[in-house]
Design a protein that fits this description.
Pfam families: Carbam_trans_N. By secondary structure, the chain is α+β, with helices and mostly antiparallel strands. The protein is built from 3 helices and 4 strands; from the N terminus they run βββααβα.
Length: 114
């Protein structure tokens, strides 16, 4: 009998699963326990739930595997940053610039000293 604890950590939807002789016995996402949607971090509660499901302790597990691939979805992550951060900053910049132009236009049109 071989027990494997699989851990998916440090990116959205962190989770853990328990595999016995190649069959998945139990799997759970951390968000189901802590109620935080798309939670990322180390899934401590998910690991506890896996162990409790089989009524075992960590020392009973033969292997612990981690899903670590920093390049996973790198293109999507870069596009997300560009889309959500840079575009938002550009929008704020041009919005502020337009407000300044309105004041300049008012000043020019009404010949005011502002």
């Amino acid at each position: 009998m071989t027990l494997i604890l699989g851990v998916n950590a440090f990116h959205a939807d962190s989770s853990a699963c328990l595999i016995k002789d190649g069959e998945i016995l139990f799997a759970i996402e951390e968000e189901r326990i802590n109620r935080i949607k798309h939670w990322s971090g180390f899934p401590v509660e998910s690991i506890k739930a896996c162990l409790e499901f089989e009524n075992i302790v960590l020392s009973d597990v033969d292997y612990i595997t981690f899903n670590i691939n920093r390049k996973f979805n790198l293109k999507k992550k870069i596009l997300y940053i560009l889309k959500n951060f840079l575009i938002a900053e550009l929008f704020r910049y041009f919005k502020k610039k337009n407000k300044n132009n309105i004041f300049k236009d008012l000043k020019k049109t009404l010949k005011l000293k502002i």
